[in-house]
Amino acid sequence: MAHTPFKTVGMVGLGKMGGAIAKALVAQGTKLFAFDPNLKQSPIEGVSLVSTLDALEKEAGLFVIAVKPNLVEPVLGEFTKPAIFVSIAAGISFGQLVNAAPKGSTCVRVMPNLPLVSNRGAMGYFCEDEAVSHTERLFYGMGETIRIGKESLMDAVTGLSGSGPAYVLTFLQAMAEAGLQEGLSYEESLGLAMETIEGTLVYFRDLRSKHHTLHPMEVRNWVTSPGGTTIHGLDALERGGFSTAVRDAVRRATERSKELGKG
Question: Which of 100, 127, 139, 251 could form a cystine bridge with 131, CB 3.0-4.6 A?
Fold first, then answer.
């Protein structure tokens, strides 16, 4: 069945993530109205900036709340009519959204990540059954959307995929600097590192489409010869605590998401 985008959507906040979602929606043909008190004019072509939340409320029936966590509840409290509210704030629970929004509203808690602007986002969301179709329709074409069955796991989504692009970019920079240290130019090293990361993921995804239970370590073993260069490189990674550091990063970001919800 063909995708039918929402005719109009309202958005509160046009920061990095809100702006990315706005661009994706406009590209699909959605008429987007936005309120952001920090802006005097819209930085995104196709987005109509309004001067008050009252004005925004008159324009749509679905609103993306893309403000900092401490502002989500006050913003929802300004709305007067029930609507569909989609919050992208870390740490703000589904219950907090329902309690703050006008009675009778439909609420969704979602954690997107920035690659959605390139249609490669990884988004986990939690909502009641009646909101699933709205959520899938809103984020259609922006990447992978996964409904999370237990809301308590949304903080883990934040720690893993929400913050994940920063981990990947840090790894990318470390690889590029390593090549630079060994004598490659920065541009040569960065180009090789980017293609290695992207190419490996495409290769593994293709393999897994044919063998659904294939584990990353199985494929890693294919390119790890006894006594070769790769096993020595992997040994250095593990002696440096690489795997533990990645797990710790996800854990700490998850904990921080929980802390944000407590205020």
Answer: 127
